[in-house]
Amino acid sequence: MAWKRKKPAKVAGPSRAESPWAWVFMPRKAGEKRYWLVKSDPATFGLAELAASPERTTRWDGVRNYQARNHLRDDMQPGDGVLFYHSQSDPPAVVATAKVVGAGYPDPTQFDRKSPGHEPRAKPDQPVWYAVDIQLDEVLGRPVTLSEMRDEA
Questions:
Q1: How far apart are CA 66 and CA 34, in angstroms?
Q2: To the nearest whole number, what is the mean pLDDT of the chain?
Q3: pLDDT tens column, 11-66
Q4: 92, 86 in Cβ contact below 8 A?
Q5: CA-CA distances (angstroms) from residue 69 to 26, 43, 107, 151?
Q6: Angle, vertex CA 124, rays to CA 122 and CA 128, nearest 5
Q7: For residues 86 and 46, is the Cβ–Cβ distance under 8 A?
Q8: Residue 84 exposed, middle or buried by CB count within 10 Å (0-12, 13-18, 19+)
Q9: To the nearest 10°, the Cα dihedral for 24, 28, 34, 39?
Q10: Looking at residue 38, what DSSP letter applies?
Q11: How far apart are CA 32 and CA 21, in angstroms?
Q12: Cα of 60 vs its chain's centroid, Å
């Protein structure tokens, strides 16, 4: 008897419209400001490096996650707020606020063969990865930890 793959059972769950995250998938209203969490590793590029950048502005590149790429490419717009989050600190925490100052554009590191972010599939007319420009707004008086944010949610 030949083996047959069973069809996966349908799992009941909220549709995009019913989800608490539905707003992320909704078209942006005119003048609407959105807020984004940007993860950084302070050992690689942290708050100190952002603060020392010319005009406290940097290209946010090197993101290699498809869902995050889609937000960078399609959703993050100039004027949107950013929570600058140190993911590899102990404890992980938001350490500053920033703003998006440049909408999504092809991440140039994907085309650089010497870059750790090089993407062999990427072509200038068919980029795979995207970046945005962010500018430091305010350093928080104290870090706001992940557990504090969870407790407030």
A1: 20
A2: 88
A3: 555 555 566 666 666 788 888 899 999 999 999 999 999 999 999 999 999 999 99
A4: yes
A5: 17, 23, 10, 28
A6: 35
A7: yes
A8: buried
A9: 50
A10: E
A11: 16
A12: 9
